[in-house]
Amino acid sequence: MFIPDHKPLSEAGDSCFIAVSQGQILAPDQSSWAPLEESTWRFSNPQLQAPQYCIGRYRGADCFVVLIDDRPDVYGHHWIDLRRLMALLDEAHYQMAARALQVIQWKLDHRFCGRCGAKTVSHRREMASHCDACDLFFYPRLSPCVIVLITRGDHCLLARNANFAGPFFSALAGFIEAGETIEGALQREVMEEVGIEVGQLKYFGSQSWPFPSQLMIGFHAAYAGGDIEVDGEEIVEADWFRYDELPQVPPETSLAGQLIRHFVAQHNNIG
Ligand SMILES: [Zn+2]
């Protein structure tokens, strides 16, 4: 179990380390990941003076994320994109790796005050960067996104986004705008992207998505009206698919994949 926190337990306690460089984490090989134990870290790390930030506790040990420049070669290790490891990690490991990447990104993006331009400093008590001149706090940024699988009987609406790397289809997703509710954002995004009205919403779950700072908030939503009309910019193709005739969809390690799997399982049980 990983417990997020920002203060180390004590100077003398056990520690483990997550090394981050240019958005990638240091792993012992290409297909597994765990935080480095202190002895391994001290032995292998070429940059012991790199900035370190406590991000929580794992198995009673303080867990530190370490920011390293330029992805140096580290004997016996590889730099890896967390997205490539997602399918292989349990919840605790994913949570700590995700938090490590987000904390580092936030630190890099808030080295200076956005109001006066002065250098910020780490706050003593809180996980915050602080501008002493303005007395302004900068906390790790989260960008909430809503993701929704629209269902219509035994069909669901899946769409292909212009930015997807592969030929797969997924649930619709979008950022929640300032001043919007989650429900309002969901209805707006669906209308903008595919021209559909949705009715009853059912909360499904959430997922930290540190690429770089999203919090995905997932729903199933019932179709309420309209014909599919894609916006042609963000969404290039969308259609209704029967639960047993789906195109290629995201893996179950993502919230989108879980939304789709849950819908399929419900209809398999009915069938
Ligand atoms: Zn300032």
List the helices and strands and how they pair.
Layout: E1 2-4, E2 15-21, E3 24-27, E4 36-37, H1 38-44, E5 52-58, E6 61-67, E7 78-80, H2 82-85, H3 91-109, E8 121-122, E9 129-131, E10 136-138, E11 143-152, E12 155-161, E13 172-175, H4 182-194, E14 197-209, E15 214-225, E16 235-242, H5 255-270
Parallel strand pairs: 2-6, 11-15
Antiparallel strand pairs: 1-5, 2-3, 2-4, 3-7, 5-6, 8-9, 9-10, 11-12, 11-13, 12-16, 14-15
Zinc ion is lined by residues 113, 115-116, 118, 131, 133-134, 136.
Q: What do you see in this structure?
A:
This protein is an alpha+beta fold and 271 residues long. The protein folds into three domains: 2-109, Nucleoside Triphosphate Pyrophosphohydrolase; 114-141, no CATH class; 143-270, Alpha-Beta Complex (Nucleoside Triphosphate Pyrophosphohydrolase), CATH 3.90.79.10. 22% of the residues lie in helices and 35% in strands. It is built from five helices and 16 strands. It has helices at 38-44, 82-85, 91-109, 182-194, 255-270, and strands spanning 2-4, 15-21, 24-27, 36-37, 52-58, 61-67, 78-80, 121-122, 129-131, 136-138, 143-152, 155-161, 172-175, 197-209, 214-225, 235-242. The strands form three sheets. Strands 1, 2, 3, 4, 5, 6 and 7 form a seven-stranded mixed β-sheet that branches. Strands 11, 12, 13, 14, 15 and 16 form a six-stranded mixed β-sheet that branches. It starts with a strand and ends with a helix. The model has no long low-confidence stretch (mean pLDDT 91). Residues 113, 115-116, 118, 131, 133-134, 136 line the site of zinc ion.
